[in-house]
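Hi D.,

Good news: the full-assembly prediction came through. Inputs first.
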Amino acid sequence: MSPIATIVVLIAMDAEAQPLIASLNLEEQKDCFMTRRAPMKCYGGVAARGARVFVVTNGTCAKHNVCNVGTVGAAIAAYDALVTLNPDVVVNAGTAGGFAKRGGAVGDVYLASTFRNFDRRIPIPRYDAYGVGEYEAIKTPNLQRELKCKIGVVCTGNSLDATETCRAALDAHEASVKEMEAAAIAHVAHLFGVPFIAVKTITDIVDGPVATQEEFLANLGTAATALKDVVPKIIDFVAGKELNEL
Amino acid sequence: MSPIATIVVLIAMDAEAQPLIASLNLEEQKDCFMTRRAPMKCYGGVAARGARVFVVTNGTCAKHNVCNVGTVGAAIAAYDALVTLNPDVVVNAGTAGGFAKRGGAVGDVYLASTFRNFDRRIPIPRYDAYGVGEYEAIKTPNLQRELKCKIGVVCTGNSLDATETCRAALDAHEASVKEMEAAAIAHVAHLFGVPFIAVKTITDIVDGPVATQEEFLANLGTAATALKDVVPKIIDFVAGKELNEL
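Then the structure:
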């Protein structure tokens, strides 16, 4: 074990990341990815105890001119960032849906316990488990005490809405958080053997009365501000520590 | 325009690729990706008119010990292969589901006209189109005549089954082919500005009487053999030509 010296924070949308980037006074890093074709953006700076911190966003789709949300954009960003930035820990931060039935409310902050895909159904032996693609977050009991936040299963899928099939899968997976990237990043982090932490702030209640997209757009600014508050606390807590101190 | 000198063929599963690799007498390429952590496998050789050909498979999931099927595995493979192998054209070859209502039958060979995701529903303006993520295959009228194959819309999703919501989306997208990777590769190919062709052989009929997973497993060998027959024809036709001759 050695102290955590490089931290990569992956955030899907620029709108989620900008308050944090401004707050941490990070500077855009040019040409830091393995190809100039990479759509991602990278912002770097120095954190507590001399650790380097990089915030990477998925960037904009060249065809559709919106952020590269979802598992494909997240997998590409994670893969390239883990090769080129070689972090000691990866943090995925983002906005997400919560569940009233599990005590979630708009504005809540969750650390992930476990990651599962809820929209990859492959009913062939062993492919079924691969489809769910369960990975564990690293254990961070001290960080959890420090943040005083909730802990829960983070479930990932590529749709903002939730069909009855989705809702049944989210129930079966005991989802406290529904979002669109974390399980893809967990798969890549496992591939590289890099410890993975995810923090999600709640913009909308999946089992509430308002359609997700309306609530999401109404609360995106608030949830991005919550990220601006919580992510620096995580960086500050993690920087320079060893994994077993988290 | 210049003659096509490097062709990358992306195939998700080793079982789909092995008959082709043996038939083309390709040799495994070690350490050709940007990281030794890459799960993909690469097999290379020389095609007609001195063109280089590489077959890249998604490799095996280190945790679940099955092939990295689906959009995340395909996006990572495409992204790394396009950076490191710098092809003039990318071909995605694989097995897929067909549709009786569009004249599909087990053993059919399809060239893709268009790629669409059928399981990414994001009901926010512009994100809805990004979710579908439509891309066009390059125009290949001469290749289509040569192969005497069917042409159709290829729709991508991360589940082998199809819920009622999936079936409605597949209908709305006029899917002739349902599979798990092509739209993710189309997104990456567009990012790199590399022309993209996809060929799919039909293992199962989505709107037929037999559950997809049973039919898929029963016909995987036959469909892999069909790939072994058709992919060399595509490589031979494409190698050394200019794009406007395809």
